[in-house]
Amino acid sequence: MDKAILLEMNNIEKIFAHVQALDRVNFQVRRGEVHTLLGENGAGKSTLIKILTGVYPKDGGQIFMEGREVNIASREDAAALGISVIFQELSLIPTLCVYQNIMLGKEFSRFGFVQAKKEKKKIADLIEYYGFSLGVNDIVETLSVAQMQMVEILKALAADAKLIIMDEPTASLSSHESKLLFSIIDQLRERGVSIIYISHRLEEVFKLSDRITILRDGKIAGVVEKNQINPSEIIKMMIGKSVSEATASRMLRQSEEETVLSIQHLCCLGAYEDVSLEVKRGEVLVLTGLVGSGRTELIRAIYGADPYDSGKIELEGKPYQPQIKKAVAEGFGLIPEDRRTQGLSPLLSVTGNVALTNYDKISSKGFVSKAREEELGRHAVRLVDLRPPNPNVLAGNLSGGNQQKVVLGKWLTRNLKVLLIDEPTVGIDIGAKDEIYQIIETLSQNGVAVLMVSSDIAEVLRVAHRIIVMREGKIAKEFHTGIVTQEDILMASSGLDTEGEV
C-alpha cells in the first residue's frame, strides 16, 4: 500500500431502517493534506465521519490506517489511532484554563497528585511550536471563538493526532478569525498533520483543499484534485441539478400590499436605537449588516423573546404587545439563529418537534390526539421534503439542513401571518439552501410577511424584495427599488455610504 496514504476507507456501507446511507464508499486521505468532504445535507458526510470516529459501526467495507486494517468501535479506538475531531459545537469547559481543558482525562500524575507544572510545560511547548496566541493559564470563557478553536486543535495535537477532522470550523468565526484558522491549517499541513475538512462555504473550500471528495445520496459523485477544481462542475456533482442563483445583483421592488407588521421608534439600550420599519403582506424584507448591529435582538423583541425599552409595534394596524404565547396565537413564527439549542429539541422526533408549536391544533380538553400529532408530523415532512422522509427519526440525528427544515416545518403547518427568520442557512449546503429559499418564496407568494436576518450578502440578494442595512444598532440604509450589488451593501454596512435610501 502507498506509504503516502494515511487513511483508506474501502467499500464502506451503512444502512438505517432500510435506507442506504452509504453505498460502497471509497475515501482516502494522504499524509499532510487537507481533504474536503462536500455534499448536500443527507449525502452521507456525517455518517462516514461517525463510522471513522467509532460513533456508528459500519455494515460493510474495510478501514486501513497507515496500511494496516483497523476496527474502530469507539471514540477511544479512533483516538488511539491518532484520529481527532473538532465539532462545530466546541466541547470545552469555560471555567477551566487552557492547559486544564487540553489535559482533561489525560492528566500527568504521580502518587495520586496531578503534575500541573509538567502539564503546563507540555502545552506551552505546543503553543510555542505552532505560534498560537494563547497562554496556558488563560481561562477559556475569556477567549474569543477563534482562540477556543485553537484550544480544541491543541487537544488533538496533545493526543498526537495524525488526522484531525474539522466540522464547519468557520461557522461562528469572523472574517479575521477565519483567516487566522486558515494559517493554522497551513501550519498543520506543513508539519505532516492530515485534515478532513467539512464546510458548506465553497469559497474557503476551494482555497484550502488539496483534494475534494463529493458525496451524493450516499455514493461518491467525484474526487477532484486541487488543480482540477471547477466550482460550477463541483456544484453539479454535489446536487445533480442546476441551482437557481441571483447572487451578483437583484432587482428590488416596492410592495403595494397592505402593511402587516409595523415597528415605530423601537429602542433597546445597548442593542438598537430608534428603529422604524414596515413589512407588507407577501413581502420578504431582509435585515443585513455586520455582526453586532442589533438585528437579532430586534426580531427577538418583536417575537416577545427579549424585552425592549421604548417604541411601538403594530400588527395589522392595531397596537401589539409581544409575548411568545400570544405571538404564536396571532400568527407569528420564529426561526432562531441557533437551531440546535433554540429551534428544536434534539431528543424529540420530527413529529415531536412539530407538535411543540401545534398543541392547540392536536389537543382537546387537555388531551393530545396521537393520530392528529402523527398526521401533522407526516404533513410537515411532506411540506419541507425532509430526507429521509421519516417523521419518527430523532431531530438530533439529522444533518444541519434537515434540522433547519424541521424548524421550518413546525411553523409551515400553522396559519402564519409573519415569519421571523434569523440566519436561515448557516452551516447548510448549497442544495439545501436553495430548497429553503424556495420555501421562503412560496410563503411570500401565499401572503406571509417575512422579516429575515442574514449576514450572507449572496443570500440577501437571492431572496430579498427589500433590504435594510443596520449598523451600530441603527438603520444605515434601505434599498427598495432598482438593482443593488454586493458592493452597495458592503459600503452601507461599513459606514462608507452616507445616503439613507435608494
Write structural notes for this entry.
This protein is α/β, with parallel strands linked by helices and 502 residues long. The chain has 18 helices and 26 strands. A 6-stranded mixed sheet has the order 6-9-10-3-11-12, with helices on both faces. The longest helix has 16 residues, at 175-190.
What tags apply to this protein structure?
26 strands, six-stranded mixed β-sheet, 502 residues, globular
Question: How are the secondary structure elements laid out?
Answer:
Blueprint: E1 5-16, E2 19-30, E3 34-38, H1 45-52, E4 60-65, E5 68-70, H2 75-80, E6 83-86, H3 98-103, E7 109-110, E8 113-114, H4 116-130, H5 145-158, E9 163-167, H6 175-190, E10 194-198, H7 202-208, E11 211-216, E12 219-225, H8 231-239, E13 249-252, E14 259-268, E15 272-280, E16 284-289, H9 295-303, E17 310-315, E18 318-319, H10 324-330, E19 332-335, H11 339-343, H12 350-356, H13 359-362, E20 363-364, E21 367-368, H14 370-384, H15 400-412, E22 418-422, H16 430-445, E23 449-453, H17 457-463, E24 466-471, E25 474-479, E26 482-485, H18 486-494
Parallel strand pairs: 3-10, 3-11, 6-9, 9-10, 16-23, 16-24, 19-22, 22-23
Antiparallel strand pairs: 1-2, 1-4, 4-5, 7-8, 11-12, 13-26, 14-15, 14-17, 17-18, 20-21, 24-25
Helix pairs in contact: 5-6, 12-14, 12-15, 14-15, 15-16
